[in-house]
UniProtKB/TrEMBL annotation:
This is Methylamine utilization protein. Keywords: Signal. It comes from Massilia rubra. Residues 1-22 form the signal peptide. InterPro entries: Carb-bd-like_fold, Cupredoxin, MauL. The keyword Signal applies. Its main location: periplasm. SUPFAM superfamilies: Cupredoxins, Starch-binding domain-like. It is found in: Periplasm. The lineage of its organism: Bacteria, Pseudomonadati, Pseudomonadota, Betaproteobacteria, Burkholderiales. The keyword Signal applies.
Amino acid sequence: MNTLFRSITLAALSLASAAAGAAAIAVQVHDSSGKPLADVVVSAAPDGNAAVPQTLKAAEIEQRGLKFMPLVSVIQTGSKISFPNFDKVKHHIYSFSPAKKFDQKLYSGVAAAPQVFDKAGTVVLGCNIHDGMVAYIKVVDTPFFAKTDAAGVARIELPAAGKYTLTSWHFNMLGAPAEQSVVVKGEGATAASVKLALKPTAPDAGAP
């Protein structure tokens, strides 16, 4: 009994120690004027030839109020996304993006089959019926990613310390995704700061 108790205790301590020493990157993203930037996709890839696990997690982009929700999604290559329509009208969604071209004819409800995104890149969604509907999907080859919140902050959980390439992308950014090398410590979160330049905001056609 004592041996069993000792084994359970050691296992619990080992798990607690692993959780406490988990590696992570805490990313703060600002635009060029210094304002926190939400909906930035940040991903981390281990340097060298280290293999990354394929942790496929299905995602969902809803259609509500003539909008795609969420506006920005991020998934690992090979994952599926479903597109349920909760509006009272039918939608005809599509993508002409090289990373994933597809066309889902007029439908409502959840009858449409999920789409598999098997190529890394950026996918822009639209609706043939409602021109104002748009959404963005970032497909990445690594399972280590996150999206910034309203405060421009994201946290990427990692399996181990080491050197990683951090990539940051926003759907309205100027130029290519920003990359930087980050040396991640074995305990707590390693801080990283990113500044992205955005394209000028288009004028509102309805404004006086």
